[in-house]
Amino acid sequence: MFAYNLKLAFKSLNDRPSLTILMVAAIAVGLGLFMTMLTLSHQAGKIPMPHISKQIHLVQLDNREVTADEAENFNQMVDLTYQDTQNLLKLPSAGVEQTLAWNTNGILNVEEQEIQPQRSSVVATNQAFFTMFEVPFLYGEGWDSDADQFSQAVIVLSKKSNDYLFGGINSVGKQVRLNTHVLTVIGVLDDWFLARKFYDRSYYQAWPDQAFIPSNFAFDSDLPRNARFDCWSTTTNPGKFRTNYLTELKTSECAWITFWAKLPNHNLEDYKTQLGQYIDSQKRLGRFPRENQYFLTNINDQLEVISNMIGREQMLGVISYMFFAVCLINAVSILLAKFMRRTKEVSLRRALGAKKRTILQQHLIEVVFIGIIGGLFGILFSYIGLQAMLRVSLYASDYVRTAADLMPYHQMDWEMIMMAFTVSVSCTLLVGLYPIWRICNVSPASQLKAQ
Amino acid sequence: MEIKPIFLSIKHNKAIAMLVIIQVAITLTVLSGSLLMTTSTLKEWNLPSGIPHNNIISAVPEFYDLEVDVRQSLVDDLARIEAITEVINVSPVTQRPFDAQGIQTIYLEASAEAQEYETNIFTGDANLPEVLQLSLIEGRFFREDEIVVGQRDELPAMPPIVMISEAMAKVLFPDNNALGQTIWLEKGAAPAEIIGIYSNFMNGENLNYFGQSYRTILQPLVTWQNRADPSYLIRVEDGMADGLLETIRNQLYKVDGRYVNRVEVLTRTQKRMYDGRGSHAIMLLVISSVLLLITAFGMAGLVSFLVTQRQKQIGTRRALGAKKWDVVRYFMLENGVLTTIGIVIGLVLSIAFAFVLTEDSGVNILDMSYIFATAFFIILVNQLAVYLPAKKAANVAPAIVTRSA
Amino acid sequence: MLKMENVSKIYRTNLIETHALRKVDLHIGAGEFVSVTGPSGSGKTTFLNLAGLLETFEEGDFYLDGQNVKGLNDNQLSELRNEKIGFIFQSFNLLQELPLFDNVDVPLRYRGFNAKERKDRIENALEIVGLSSRMQHLPTQLSGGQQQRVAIARAIAGQPKFLLADEPTGNLDSLMAQQVMELLEKINQQGTTIIMVTHDDQLARRAHRNIQIFDGQVSDLAQDQTDVLIKSE
Q1: Which of A77, A159, C17, C194 is most buried (CB neighbours < 10 A)?
Q2: Which residues of chain A make contact with C96, given a CB cutoff of 8 A?
Q3: What are B253-294's pLDDT values in tens digits?
């Protein structure tokens, strides 16, 4: 019976091939755009370092003035002041790793004349950064605590910078200049893919940093501080701290450094207690005028807040849903028309002894087949769509970002491919339900007498 | 007309009618939403530049070695660049067209509550108007001896004269002649006299976004600050710009302790100014036109199918005296009724969607004329999509009625 | 009223020519009730299509109500059909989605009557066929005989000069067939010319005159005396 129904279903699809093509094309195009947007948001929604992301916490202490607004989540809270980062780093807590990070930039250059200098975005941090975030190394390793303490001139290069400056060789021990400062390469990163660059709270995709240096060295060299300075209102023009007034900045109440703690579950409560005690101790010194408040937010929770903010992609997402809906409606109206023409035939088959089930099976096969073929082509279309979106991103960034960096965000994985098939078949079935229901309820006798 | 039988026929095919209506409604919503977004995105898009941007190179170097003598390197740079045979003219500047950073405010009086006017101030030497090929509308250009040169925070005094663009003049002095008037570039500073008015050129993205693309002021000033030394605008012979980029970059690298960030033809700067908006708008337009195509093809497919289903009916009508045109009209009218119902629902949805978008983007994008235009366009496309299969349907031979069922 | 002179109809495919009708000469006067009989494939349907202006012909002349229809274009033929001819089909050919009222309305719409006139005519026509109480019903709610009566109402509503009936009782049982025939005869008595194609000799004999088609050729038989007797009873 199944074979016979299969035959009938294919005969029907073959009956007016242009209509079948139209249905499949409508579903495929709709699915193509839908999956393109879904894949983008799927990849964008991925969490960096998912195996430890719940342990990595952003640390924020509320040192703001009394009149400041209430903060509901980390995104409305300020980061840390320089003095607080230094104090927290000295907290005696076993099993807790802490790091700080701020952005700077400079011109990386080497002695060789043929290699032109390159403007690079550089992260100023401490030794714990590399172990905490499990940063992969191609050559060498991160610096040690001595380097932090004595602000040694060492640098960790990204793979791409090493390729550019040293042709990809093991450059550990070689000298590189950041502006006029001479630093020794201590490590070279391997490819380090982060779904989002979380550590500077930019949450950027595909904008990797080119080098990492000890924070204290960056202070000593007076490298520019690319940060937002949240200062008390008594400090006018906080933008001046970008390139100047370092001594004033170090003792000010300006919050600008992101601070991270890796807290395995059993350490979380202890750490909270310590933060509370720390704020109290500072209150005795006349700081922290507000209530004792701090934020500890892990990466998952941060992304939750961030992804709730509406962006341009979301608007395209809404459009892609509606687009898919139109395509499905398009397909189903043709399907309905097609099935309804067949009422006479079906009523004859019913009269000749076909069970409802058989009729149902025959039409289900037809609909599922359309769904599968639509899914196949839909995947093809979404591949094309993703490629197009990648080109658009490249174009819109004036080719500053590279295709290689953007690729991971424009790629379908197996999860998405399975998703495409599921969506295609289930949506086709869903919209096919009504036509199938109509055709299955044709009564055996109704259409037999001449009209 | 035959509206009533059409309604009866629609009632008979409720399901399909509903599907068509929903499809039209959503199509209108998506289309008008995209169109509104697109037009608001493309507002002020790709305006005339006012300068021969294909023949102007912008070079943006910076010093990472703070020990370098900037004043000397400036002299050397100019000499090296002018020595290139294809170079016509060069001027050291701090802002480039299409790329003006930030927004400066200027005033017409010194008082504290003076009205603010937004603009972009471009600095340069006496060559700058010639590099940009600006034409003089009134007054005069700067003279060599009027140029003030020096590091920004060590300047003895700001130049006492400025030139302003035609558009700027219109804003500042809508009724009077701007020539000879004074303006304040900074509160509390000395005023500057307007000595000339020149033809408009594009400032940059910030003011362009507010529809103030041509508000500019020229200051006879060659200056630098910390690491960012003056950048250069270089006009070269027609068609030579692309070939000279590498040469100029190499010349600039002859000074040690310097990084040459960007050497590009202003065409590229112009592209960068618009590319984000352009790509977004084009994406929306592509999606919209595909959607429109799908709707049109779907409608044509559906009607051509319904036509074969209704052959006997058409034959009967023909036998009863319907002309071919009557048959075509019947189908077009039927589609027209459904489309119109869909349009009415779609109008409501579109307005709601536009409100949501407005709320999200903070820019009021609701413009009924675009929504109505889209609706009209959808009706047009649908009618066209129906016309062809309906015309075929009209060719059903009336003799079909005498064939037994 | 209807005059064919030397009319021929040839169907051509790539390979063969079929003479569906050969050199038909025929005259039917006003007010006649003519039956057309013949075996399957003899050309009955072709004759009907030509007489009903549903198809065009290649040779000969055809005068309908004094007007030569040869060479008229599609629009002119449509107008003539609408005005002069009423059709009654074996399978009724009612428009399924329209109530009786609107079914009868179809040819009147094409005629361009105003609403008032259409309404009067529709009600009158349905009155004649005895279905005025069911004006708002759909065809599917009626029996076969009733549906055919609706078709008759639709055919006469425009008061055409001719009724062309194609096996009008072919799909009906004998009782209903009887009713339909009586209705047709009543209409004929009021002056409408009727041409009825049938394969039923019994029915054919109820007409004034019987035309036989055999292999595309028409033979005009004198009418049977018995029919006249039956009629006069």
Answers
A1: C194
A2: 451
A3: 988 888 998 899 999 999 999 888 888 888 888 888 898 888
Interface contact flag, A450 C91, Cβ < 8 Å: yes
Which of C82, C91, C167 is closest, CB to CB, to B320?
A: C82
A14 in contact with B, Cβ within 8 Å: no
pLDDT digits 0-9 by tens, C146-195: 999 999 999 999 999 989 998 888 888 888 888 889 999 999 999 999 99
Closest CA to A228 of A451, A77, A405: A77
Residue of A nearest to B258 (CA): A117
Chain A residues lying within 8 Å of C91, measured CB to CB = 450-451
Same domain, A281 and A318: no
User: How close is the nearest chain B Cα to the Cα of C93, in Å?
Assistant: 6
* pLDDT value for B346: 94
Which residues span the domain enclosing A41? Answer: 2-47+310-440
Whole-angstrom distance, CA of residue A442 vs CA of residue A438: 7
Would you say residue A123 lies in a domain? yes
> In terms of domains, do A211 and A316 share one?
no
Q: How far is CA B67 from CA A42, A241, B75, B249, C226, in A?
A: 50, 22, 16, 21, 133
User: Do residues A80 and A228 both lie within one domain?
Assistant: yes
Q: HSE of C147 in the Cβ direction (CA atoms, 13 Å)?
A: 25
Q: Could you report the per-residue pLDDT of A307-347, keeping only the tens digit for each?
A: 776 555 677 788 888 899 999 988 888 888 888 878 878 88
Who's near A448: CB < 8 A, 6+ residues apart? A347, A348, A351
Q: A451 and C171: CB-CB below 8 Å?
A: no
B44 to chain C, any CB pair closer than 8 A? The answer is no
Is C117 an interface residue toward B (CB < 8 Å)?
A: no
Q: Which subunits count as partners of chain A given 3+ CB pairs below 8 Å?
A: B, C
Instruction: Kindly state whether C40 is in contact with chain A, defined as any CB-CB distance less than 8 angstroms.
Output: no
Q: Are residues A22 and A98 in the same domain?
A: no
Q: How far is B317 from chain C (nearest CA, A)?
A: 7
Separation between Cα atoms, residue B174 and residue B190, nearest integer Å: 23
Least CB-CB distance to B312: which of C78, C93, C167?
Answer: C93
Coil, strand, or helix at residue A125?
A: strand
Residue C39: pLDDT band by 50, 70, 90 thresholds?
confident
Mark whether A167 and A42 lie in a shared domain: no
Q: Which domains does chain C have, with CATH numbers?
A: 2-232 (3.40.50.300)
Do A283 and A381 lie in a common domain?
no
Chain B, residues 355-384, CB within 8 A of chain C, namely none
Assess A118–B contact: CB distance below 8 Å, yes or no: yes
Last residue within a domain, chosen from A307, A337, A358: A307
Residues of chain B with Cβ-Cβ distance to A106 below 8 Å are 64
Assess C87–B contact: CB distance below 8 Å, yes or no: yes
Least confident of A132-136, B65-69, B74-78, B244-248: B65-69
Subunits next to C (3 or more Cβ pairs <8 Å) are A, B
How many structural domains are present in chain A? 2
Tokens of C27: 């005259």
Name every chain B residue with its beta carbon within 8 A of the beta carbon of C93.
Answer: 312, 315-316, 319, 401
Chains that touch B (3 or more CB pairs under 8 A): A, C
> Are A24 and A98 in a shared domain?
no
Out of A259, A292, A307, a domain closes at: A307
Q: Do residue A299 and residue A403 come from a single domain?
A: no
The string of DSSP codes covering A305-371 is: HHHTS--HHHHHHHHHHHHHHHHHHHHHHHHHHHHHHTHHHHHHHHHTT--HHHHHHHHHHHHHHHH
Q: In this complex, is the C-beta atom of A451 within 8 Å of any C-beta atom belonging to chain C?
A: yes
User: What span, in angstroms and rounded, lies between the C-alpha atoms of C36 and C41?
Assistant: 13
